[in-house]
Task: inverse folding
């Protein structure tokens, strides 16, 4: 009976996704197996996967090792040894299997290496060591090239991010508007999870996987990417030039620096304030309404007793003993919501008319930030010109850099508050009930700090607006 062998094929990059490279390898390996009189039991293919990168797992390579260990195959045929292994540790795992059973078969199209013999294993180790060095050298050259391109503000290739047309230079107007709309929602209190669900429903974002499903961090990155305001990044960090200023890319921008800083400040503050907490809310005044007797927070809850002729259960705002309240105040939720909404919209329309004629407030510490950045540039240049020593530079620089970073954070918070107010004012003209619940709550909290619900007494009563007391900011 002819031995059964596995054909293993791999190529590091298949940009076109057509698999032609691994197909050619498979043909040559099958021809070699036929010449040796071996039957090909199965073809194992790892297309578009690196064997050099340590964080990349090759599922078909792992399956080859497993099947070889279980005796399902008698050997392996590959186009070249470096298709199987470019890391010495992967080769040693393969050698261990051939040590256990000397009669296992091994062949490559490009050279004759026998893993069953000591000389063959030594030769294989040398070949993989050289292949590993070649990958290291190529990786270093590629990194150096990408760094040089980054310093020039150029792109490093790859598909265009969402928001830009093919090539990554020109803005895609439709996608850019989706990004700006989502950022306005974020500033108005909407969760990234809500935005992600909306985008998935509408098929926005076109992730590389070719599906409409996106992870939370992917949407967050799309809305906070420094690229949006023109900043060039390298390995996830904003790249600075010799003067300490961000390198500006060659592409069109979607946001101003102020807009981008405001969005980043919102995301950062949420993570610091409530790490890991879900901001999802089901009822408009949950956490906003308070008991008129004990002043504890009141939360919405479903009332399973349905109104006559109603298909759905109503909900109530109930002061609960479980939440530390007195348990003596409760009110049907819908009339309370409608009353509070009408009050808030009327107040905010009036406020919008007044704000329309007020000049836009500017961040007051902009001159100080410009002066600090100028001092940093002058000190750095003085050190280059040998006017001061490097030791003096390193003594003076940290305090200036710390102050610069503090001022930038302060500017981000200022821009966040200003843009949040603008986003909320813009919502006044929209259909309030069509907005996400988080955005509705942000509108309420922009005008009110709380809503007091006073007891109505015993027995059935009509809704009495005088028992709902808004606490205005």
Result:
């Amino acid at each position: 009976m002819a031995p059964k062998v596995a054909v293993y094929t791999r190529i590091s990059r298949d940009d076109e996704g057509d698999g032609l490279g691994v197909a050619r390898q498979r043909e040559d390996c099958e021809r070699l197996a036929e010449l040796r009189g071996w039957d090909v039991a199965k073809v194992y293919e790892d297309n578009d996967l690196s064997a050099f990168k340590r964080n990349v797992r090759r599922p078909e390579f792992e399956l080859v090792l497993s099947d070889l260990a279980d005796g399902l195959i008698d050997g392996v045929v590959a186009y070249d040894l470096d298709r199987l292994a470019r890391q010495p540790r992967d080769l040693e795992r393969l050698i261990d299997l051939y040590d256990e059973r000397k009669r296992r078969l091994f062949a490559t199209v490009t050279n004759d290496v026998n893993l069953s013999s000591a000389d063959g294993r030594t030769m294989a180790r040398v070949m993989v060591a050289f292949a590993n060095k070649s990958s290291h050298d190529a990786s270093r050259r590629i990194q150096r090239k990408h760094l040089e391109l980054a310093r020039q503000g150029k792109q490093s290739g790859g598909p265009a991010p969402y928001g830009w047309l093919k090539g990554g230079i020109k803005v895609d107007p439709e996608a850019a508007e989706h990004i700006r709309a989502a950022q306005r929602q974020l500033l108005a209190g909407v969760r990234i999870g809500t935005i992600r669900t909306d985008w998935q429903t509408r098929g926005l974002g076109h992730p590389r996987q070719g599906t409409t499903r996106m992870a939370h961090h992917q949407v967050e990155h799309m809305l906070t990417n420094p690229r949006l305001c023109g900043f060039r990044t390298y390995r996830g960090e904003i790249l600075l030039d010799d003067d300490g200023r961000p390198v500006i890319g060659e592409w069109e921008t979607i946001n101003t620096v102020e807009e981008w800083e405001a969005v980043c400040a919102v995301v950062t503050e949420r993570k610091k304030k409530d790490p890991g907490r879900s901001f999802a809310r089901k009822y408009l005044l949950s956490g906003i309404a308070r008991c008129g007797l004990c002043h504890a927070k009141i939360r919405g809850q479903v009332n399973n007793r349905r109104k006559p002729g109603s298909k759905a259960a109503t909900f109530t705002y109930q002061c609960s003993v479980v939440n530390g309240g007195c348990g003596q105040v409760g009110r049907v939720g819908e009339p309370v919501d409608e009353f509070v909404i009408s009050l808030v919209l009327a107040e905010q329309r009036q406020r919008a008319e007044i704000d329309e004629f007020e000049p836009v407030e500017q961040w007051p510490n902009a001159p100080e930030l410009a002066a600090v950045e100028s001092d940093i540039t002058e000190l750095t240049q003085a050190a280059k010109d040998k006017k001061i020593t490097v030791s003096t530079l390193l003594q003076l620089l940290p305090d200036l850099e710390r102050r610069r970073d503090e001022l930038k954070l302060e500017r981000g918070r200022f821009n966040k508050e200003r843009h949040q107010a603008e986003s909320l004012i813009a919502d006044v003209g929209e259909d309030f009930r069509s907005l996400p619940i988080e955005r509705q709550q942000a509108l309420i909290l922009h005008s009110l700090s709380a809503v007091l619900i006073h007891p109505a007494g015993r027995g059935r009563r009509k809704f009495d607006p005088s028992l709902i007391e808004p606490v205005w900011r």
